[in-house]
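quick one, 344 residues, struct below
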Amino acid sequence: MEPAARSRIADIARAAGVSTATVDRVLHGRLAVRPATAQRVLKAAGELRYLPDQDLWRALRPAPTELAFLLPAGTNRYLRMLGDGIAGAGDAIAPFHVHCRVHTIDSFDPVRVAAALRRHGRSAQGLAFMALEHPRVREAVDELVERGVHVLTLISDLAESRRAAYVGMDNRAAGRTAATLIGRFLGPRTGSVAMIAGSLAYRGHEEREMGFLGRMQEQFPGLRVVGVREGRDDADTNERHARALLRQHPDLVGLYNIGGGAEGVGRALKSLRRAVRPVFVAHGLTPDTRALLIDGTLDAVINQHPQTMLLNCVRIFGNLRDGRGATAGVEPVRIGIVLRENLP
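---
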């Protein structure tokens, strides 16, 4: 080391009240130093003009916030699109100084969901996940919050938990919207209407069901809701459910797919030998639902844009990191209705 450099490091050490060895570690990133100590050293270095302004700014800037997104494993195309969008966000989230990782988990098993929350919460400052309504999951969320990890629920909320915010559409309103669409499309036709959910252990799917039932009872007395099946967002399972419903209810005139796997319902409807197919409403604009809209099998898609979901999560994490209210400046996720005539 040059004599001038040594003398300047000694000056920085005196100004910061630390040893020259500590200054050397901070300036060269050799060993961990307490954040408060590192800040003092860097501030002294800047005042003594030892570092160019750009280098000082870069050194003072904290490491990116680590965000973990836990998404359900399986064949749900919308969730896969969301995961791909998060993993490839790059420039879109660069201004927020965050680093996002996507992990897939078994989302229908509360024990495994709780274990995944605790495991990924050890290495992340923020965590977003599609919540399963269960005491074990709620307990895991509360433990993470107690340790200082910011937790968001995504698409489906978790009642009575300490999560910081929910990111997603109003699911009860989404169910009411689906009922209104089916009822309006059917006009004077009467008959049975059925629902296929991913899992009613998701509060979001339960809320969609309740909204749907309430609107049907209020506005469409000529339509009889014949219950809900659970397909776990799997297209093949949904196809079997749809075929069974069509056999059991020859007067079936409407189908609402509450979760994912709409392509399975579409396959069942395409196999029908009827002059008029049931009205079909589903969630999530994907390549599969787009194709079903185009060929007329699917009448409407209720959508929440994946990029909006990601950016809302990132903005909320930024607010929490900087001490602002969680949803300050964050627009609620809006319900989009996509028809064949307005496909983006």
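The two ends are 62 Å apart (CA to CA).
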